[in-house]
Amino acid sequence: MSLDLFTAFNSEDLWLKFSDKEYDIAMEKAKNFASLAQQHQALINFLASNCLIKWLNMTYGDLIRQVNFEFEEKDLFSIWQFVNGTPLIINNLSRRLVVIPEECEDLSEFNIPQEWLDIPQLRGDYFLPVQVNLETGWLRFYGFTTYEYIKKYSYYNRYFAYYILPEHFLDDDLNLIFLFEKYQLFNHVEYQALPQFSSVEKRQFMEQLNNIEASRVRHHLNFVQWAALFADKSCRLSLYKKYQPISLGSWLENNFYQAYSQGWQNLTDLMDSLNFISSSPSVSSNGIVMRSGNVNLEYIYQINDEKQLKVAAQRLSVLPTNSVHKNQVLQALNYIMSRSHDDETRWHAAEGIWRLEPNNPNAGLWCGKRLNLGLEMGDLSLALVIGVLPKSDSQNSIFFRLYPTNNHLLPANLKVQIMDEETKVFKQLTSREGDRILQYKFWGNKGEFFWIQMSYHSTQLSEAFII
């Protein structure tokens, strides 16, 4: 950004234009977040604060020594994971300026997260609202306020844990901030200290957040307990790491620590509440009954045709787990895995192997997570199941499934979007009346990101993964 890229369309507001390069840098930072909501929050925070820092240091260099980020990048990420806003420091730790961006049209109220006012270690002195327009590339800084004004004139929204200040209490002239700083015209405000908690108590608070969705973490504890964790750098970073995109490659190395810490379970632990496979074929003494007739198991080893391998894998995959032919079928399915290069065939075979011998290397790795899309779903909960199967040295195959739990049916018009690392939708699924499952198979290069977003009416939930 340079000075020729800012324009005052309205003399009372500051407008800054960000470049495509600055947007791309911010987008790379945002990929460090699991959900699309947190990704968007990080994107607009980095854009707004980074552009403002550059402009302030160019414009007010004679009044202030320096304006910069208060925290290192990882610390900022741990903040943006849960709370909107970026703290900047004026004059080497003298005063804190909190930039709070929003992508909205309604500027009648300024929403300030409680953390920036009621946690002494993070309390802001000045607060700048920013209107962000990602489509046009403009940032609009339309005023500022102070800690004293917010405490005196705002009202508190307990549900969102925000202080809300009407727009007419904002001061339009940003120059005043730096005149206050130069001539030290600011007031030293008294604030109320929060209770102190021991490391044991903080650990107990952290345990209460196990299996809590990232969007609900901030509201799960009371504010005093949450503030103790959020103000503690170590606790905050631990929480941030907990909600990083799930590494599917780690599953193939039998490393499930990250997944289990985010509420995922081995699929065997979910089986009691999932109608995983609804039917099984009968088995004759000499083989498996196929829809086209009897096929002797020994005949499978003579099959070279990919279509015939697929049919065999499909029928073998639903063999009853108590079958006397279990060992023979396992051997045949492992043979199909070694012979077939077709993803559909291999997944049928892998499913069959998993049902008969879950720890078999050819079964793939399967984990599931219970989901709650809120009150609109009534008493129905869902289970997201992901299977991973090596495809080549540089690629893995992914099998996505979404189930209702406890033998319910999926509600109609439940939507699932699967997005690539650029958040472009490459597959969309919509449930119909009477559907029991939504599923999709795809593959990707190791290290690539993808997102699965589920939505029902106005409720959305997303999960992020690294292949």
From TrEMBL:
Pfam families: DUF1822. This is DUF1822 domain-containing protein. It comes from Cyanobacterium aponinum (strain PCC 10605). InterPro entries: DUF1822 (IPR014951).
